[in-house]
Amino acid sequence: MEFNITKFIPSWCSAVMDGENADGVLTEQFLKSASNEFDVTSIHTISLAQQSITDISAIARCIGLERLDLSHNAITYLQPISSLTNLLVLDVSDNKISSLCGLETLERLEWLNLAGNMIGTIEALRSLVSLQNLSSIALRDPVRDVGNPVCMRQSYKMLVLKLLPQLHTLDHEIVKGPNAEVFVMMKEIKEDLAHRNAARDEVSARNVAAPAEVPDDLFMVKRDDELLPAELHFRHSASMSQQLNAKGLQLISEAKERLSATEHV
Predict the structure, then answer these.
(1) Which residue from 45, 100, 128, 132 has the least number of CB within 10 angstroms?
(2) How far is CA 220 from the centre of its chain?
(3) Domain 5-174 = CATH 3.40.190.10
(4) For residue 246, how far is the Cα from the chain centroid?
């Protein structure tokens, strides 16, 4: 399941909090002000993004939290979050986190954004192995081009999926489920075109330096040959999309028929 945490955050949660936060310590009063709640245990959704927070000890008392945004702060540890066993959505992107100790107790967690931190090894993700409801993780944000040191390892995605086979989405890309095959094919098309464009540029450079007696088109990539694999990929992905759409329409039609039959009983 793919979440966009912003749609869960009421507008008043994202407002600038009352009071100062110069020392970076999150306090109970700070939490009440941000959530407009009289009791921190009543807070279900809160955004604490961009508040220069370094110490999140007070968050441990928010045991009713289901959706928490701590992005764009200076947090280095997550241990206080271990008591938030109702948490479904957690965004701690753009912090200074290198260890995930404390998250192993979050059995209900479904969506986790870790992009823009300091996670350096696959082993650091072992705290998440027991979280069977966890279906989406982001270690890298391809839009903003921020990640973690572990993302520099070429095979990191394969290793993450081996460690966490329950994932459906990794780095905002679908890796499992009914749309995964189409997503992968479209990605392959993009990579194939990029590779062929690079090859064409290389051939063009070689062609400029070729002796005069060599035919001009000897090193040129033929356009039909260049586009054929991408075209086949595209047609296949389009066919898959049509099949998925047809299946969806069929299911909707069947559901309507069952509903109509029920109403006439």
Answers:
(1) 132
(2) 40
(3) no
(4) 28
Residues 6+ apart with CB under 8 A from 223: none
Per-residue pLDDT of the chain (265 residues; tens, 9 = 90+): 555 555 544 443 443 444 445 589 999 999 999 999 999 999 999 999 999 999 999 999 999 999 999 999 999 999 999 999 999 999 999 999 999 999 999 999 999 999 999 999 999 999 999 999 999 999 999 989 999 999 999 899 999 999 999 999 999 999 876 554 444 444 545 555 656 666 666 666 665 554 545 455 544 444 444 445 555 555 555 656 666 677 777 777 777 777 776 666 5
Backbone angles phi, psi at 208, to 5 degrees: -65, -35
- The one-letter amino acid code at 121 reads T
Residue 48: alpha-carbon gap to chain centroid: 19
Residue 68: helix, strand or coil by DSSP?
A: strand
DSSP 5: G
For the range 73-80, what are the long-range contacts, defined as Cβ-Cβ under 8 Å and sequence gap of 24 or more?
Answer: 73/48, 73/49, 74/24, 77/101, 77/102, 78/102, 78/103, 80/56
* Rounded CA separation 57/86 (Å): 17
Q: Which long-range contacts (CB under 8 A, 24 or more apart) does 72-77 make?
A: 73/48, 73/49, 74/24, 77/101, 77/102
Q: Which of 130, 115, 10, 138 is nearest to 82 (CA)?
A: 130
Rg of the chain (C-alpha set): 25
41 Cβ neighbours under 8 A, 6+ residues apart = 61, 62, 63, 64
Residue type at 168? H
